[in-house]
Amino acid sequence: MTASSSTENPGLARQVWHQLEPVHALFWYSPDVFAEAEALGYKVDTRWPSYFAWRAAPLGAAGAEAVSAAFYSFSPRMVAEHIPAAWTVAPPERVLEARTRAVDRMYRNLLGDAIGAPGIAEAADLARTATEAASTAGRPLAAANADLPWPDEPHLALWHAIGVLREQRGDGHVAALLTAGLDPAEALVSFAAIGAAPVETFASRGWTDDEWAAARDRLASRGLVNADGTATDRGRELRDSVERTTDDLAYGPWRTLGAEKTDRLTQLTMPILFKVLESGLLPAQNTLGIGRV
């Protein structure tokens, strides 16, 4: 297997994402991260006040419209509940400092003495090589994260690299959704329609029942969903095309890294992935469809 072009291995970008995303995503559920958020002054009875702060901070003190545009699938009304109020609790630069501390605490508690293992340093170097090959043109969240200084410690550099790569893929996914003519609510409804996750899971994005039903009706008028909300053949084909485009747009870093080194990166991060899964902190269902073939 070679990595010379996306046509030779079109699923590689998705395969790597499925493994690396949980290694990064533990951040959104870790008690260590919530502790840092609470110390900053954010409410932690739900994850959303700190979520919007953590993820939007690389953009600077962005307003609700800018964050809604970048995050895409969240209801603008939900975004406005947290942005720009997040910056009155702590300015972005303090949030980013605390984010680094939170990642450090999280990984040290997760990995224990293994935090200094040579494999983590090697994984960080490989991930950085992939990250530095990731185009950020037209990708605001990826660019904002890539513009941050690289952490010195390998476990922090690894998390940072995966973060840039996941935002680079996410920005490309937004481009694919726009090309397919799927607005933010329709993107979620169409994803639920193919069984990526139960409809209830997508309630976390803040759309009302009426807004969800209206989006479903729009999709039905295009022949993309049935009356019961399940995808038609055309709907499945459209979602497949969105995912293929997303993979193609996310393939550049892995083409540069090459198949052998990409395989090495996945091997090196496998022990971390197992630790993350064993922690029980990740939800069984998620809006990204992680774990879905």
Give a quick rundown of the structure.
By secondary structure, the chain is mostly helical. It has 15 helices and no strands. The model is unreliable at 1-7 (pLDDT under 50).
Secondary-structure topology with pairs:
Blueprint: H1 12-25, H2 31-40, H3 48-56, H4 64-71, H5 76-82, H6 86-89, H7 92-111, H8 118-132, H9 140-146, H10 154-179, H11 184-193, H12 209-221, H13 233-249, H14 252-257, H15 259-279
Helix pairs in contact: 1-10, 1-15, 2-7, 4-5, 8-10, 8-15, 9-10, 10-13, 11-12
Describe the fold and architecture.
- By secondary structure, this protein is mainly alpha-helical.
- It contains 15 helices and no strands.
- It starts with 11 loop residues before the first helix and ends in a 14-residue tail after the last helix.
- It has one domain (12-279).
- It is globular.
Q: Helical element count?
A: 15
Distance between the termini: 20 Å
Number of distinct beta strands: 0
Q: Any idea what the radius of gyration is?
A: 19 Å
Class of secondary structure makeup: mainly alpha
Helix content: 55-70%
Shape: globular
For the structure shown, list the relevant keywords:
293 residues; disordered N terminus
